Amino acid sequence: MRNDSRLSRMLHVLIHMDRHQHSATSEMIAKMLNTNPVVVRRTMAGLRERGYVRSEKGHGGGWTLVRPLWEITLLDVYNALGEPHLFAIGPADDQPKCLVEQAVNSVLQDAMKEAEALLLRRLGGVTLEEIAADFEAKLTARWATSYPCAS
User: Fold this and answer.
1) pTM, whole model, 2 decimals?
2) Which of 82, 104, 123, 144 is the most buried if burial means most Cβ atoms within 10 Å?
């Protein structure tokens, strides 16, 4: 099963959008993500509906960030993307009358609910500003390492 990377990709896009003065067209974002502009528009639509971005048509149009990064959590973006599946594993349903399968599924479902609740709490506790700050720190460290005489 292929990983659903929409959350990671949209976090990436939103942080880039925050760093640039101008709007980003669907074509520009698609090129950055190596995908189709239609996929970008469809994915960004959920973010627009939640009030995180807006889009303008025509010459000079594109996508712009509406809210500051410190107001947007990973959970906000996850919800705007339609709450994609968090895990690739799940219960079997080959033999629903089998008592062993029922027992296994019960334990797995409990564990998955617990893991999902923990992950969602964590996503709700991290803002995009925190990720952007980590990026800035890494960029500064790389720059200092590349140009040791500059300090």
Assistant:
1) 0.83
2) 123
The whole domain housing 124 covers 6-150
Q: What is the pLDDT along the chain (151 residues), one digit of tens a residue?
A: 577 888 999 999 999 999 987 889 999 999 999 999 999 999 999 999 999 999 988 777 899 999 999 999 999 999 999 998 888 787 888 888 999 999 999 999 999 999 999 999 999 999 999 999 999 999 888 887 776 665 4
CATH of the domain at 145: 1.10.10.10
The number of folded domains in the chain is 1
141 occurs within a structural domain? yes
C-alpha angle with apex 124: 79 to 117, nearest 5 degrees? 85
Nearest to 64 by CA among 112, 123, 16: 16
